[in-house]
Design goal:
The chain has six helices and 13 strands. With about 240 residues, it is of the alpha/beta class. The strands form three sheets. A nine-stranded mixed β-sheet has the order 4-1-5-6-13-12-11-8-9, with helices on both faces. A hairpin with a 4-residue loop joins strand 11 and strand 12. Helix 2 crosses helix 3. The protein binds manganese (II) ion. Manganese (II) ion binds next to loops.
Length: about 240
Amino acid sequence: MRNVVIGLGGMYDKAPPSSAFPTLRRLFTNEGYLSKLQNSGALPILLPVVPEEDLEQLVLLCDGILLAGGPDIDPSFYNEERHVLCGPSDREVDRYQLQLFYLARKHRKPILGICRGAQLINVAQGGTLHQDYRLQSEKAVLHPDYENWGSESHTITIACDSKLFGIFQNQTLGVNSLHHQSIATLGKDCIPTAVCCDSSIEAIELSSGAWCLGVQWHPEAMGSGMDCLFDAFIDEARKANT
Ligand code: MN
């Protein structure tokens, strides 16, 4: 039996000044995603920015799609003006990753969204984002907590009737918090399944179609306590393929 193949939406980045070709862009993903996927028995593959027709072919080669963390989504994709606190965006990558989401949905591929990936699911479904956590009504929690990169920064409360609860078997979970944006209005069929004590949405699930779950934290940067999330995603991808 062949391995479960998980496609990751790539991002562009400028090569560092130390590179032999500092003016060139690179397609990348972070190693943490790859190692967690491999650890859970999947074969990860980085998907390039290609025209939609070609992207559809690539999606069909995959059993599931991981939408990773990254820069802020351009606010025009949720019909808002850019706020001064919004970080830089790459509209080309945004457009491509939205296409990747729609194609994965069309072909009923399970999707795991992480941080920006969770936000992208919400935006693709017609929802909006807080362009910075300081624009939320409650501000008790410091969400971009880079001091605790791979460890618990705040707790979240998980809804009992959610897929997430089925995975973690707990209503309370300690998570890291490396985001400065968060979900504002929910997109179509987006169910908020975990919140922080400041009522910030920390996870969503789609109530229709194939398995689709988005988490606001970075499980790939945390320890083995997060492996169950990747295991569950890969199980769904395996099932969807058989
Ligand atoms: Mn958070």
